[in-house]
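We close this part of the discussion by returning to an individual protein. In the encoding step, the backbone of a single protein was reduced to a row of integers, each denoting a local shape. The sequence in question and its structure tokens are set out directly beneath this paragraph.
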Amino acid sequence: MALEMAANRPTRAAPRAGLAGQAAGGKMRDGRMRKLVFLAGMGMLMAAPWAHAQLGLGLVPMRVEVHMTPGQEYSGSLKLSSESDAKVRVRAEVLDFNIDDKTTPQFERDLPQEAAISCKKWLSLNPMEIEIGKGGFLNVRYTLRLPADITEGSYNCAAGFTTLPAAGQVNPGIGMRMAVRIVAAIYIVVGSPPVRGTLKEFKFEAIPPSKDSKEAGWQAVVVLENQGKMYFRPTGKLEVVNDKNQVVETEEFAPLPVLRERSQRFIFPLKTHLDPGHYKLRAHVDIGTGEIQEGVADVTVEPPAQTPPANPAPTGQHAEH
């Protein structure tokens, strides 16, 4: 596969609307700063078989962004609700998170590579162990306490809530149980770090045949590089253009964050069958600066390699194995 990427060409776009909203129960200890909070959805579910009850959790909000100053303290609340048909116990925990190269959010108790930008060490939750009745809810208080020497930039961590077996459901003879986890992603912005990012790479990647299809497929991959200390969430589209300059497929960028000072892959599984030949990948993306970055890459889909037939053994002889 050949690849050649044209230079980005920024063009002006209408400025994006600013952040808006306020978390329920939020309280800013330093009155000098205005609090801004994003509300949206990000969660993770993990499950294993359990015979007793259907489990489910709800959480509002599931994404929080707070602008703070060094040394400041901020408190807010998360509404945790149960969708279970029985009383449920829940354990709260503070987590690191990042987005892997398959664009899957990874929430872990400790991700050493995220230590420099994690807000986990400044986050506390109360209560840490919770019991919610059937169809009930509880407000969980979270508090962020920033150190006085924190530098300008964005920081991220998460508040996770995982179900535990109720006391009457614990059975040492059963080795598997259901556990549901729901997560709120938390972003802290200190100062006014500029958003700095660029289109870095375009390419096709082959997808092996699935059980339902004998034919291999393709996915387009666009890599965005965050060169600054402020995370961003791009919007835009990717077009696949054939050698007749016809757009054969258009896909939207997924609403994923690109965390500070890293490169992030965006994957676009293609629905269109691509015959061998020359194509272009053309991207239009806004990383939140109000400018549209444009990038074009020339790619080639090569014919599948032909497997030569095995030489038959001469008549009257047996092939060695």
About this structure: The longest strand covers residues 88-99.
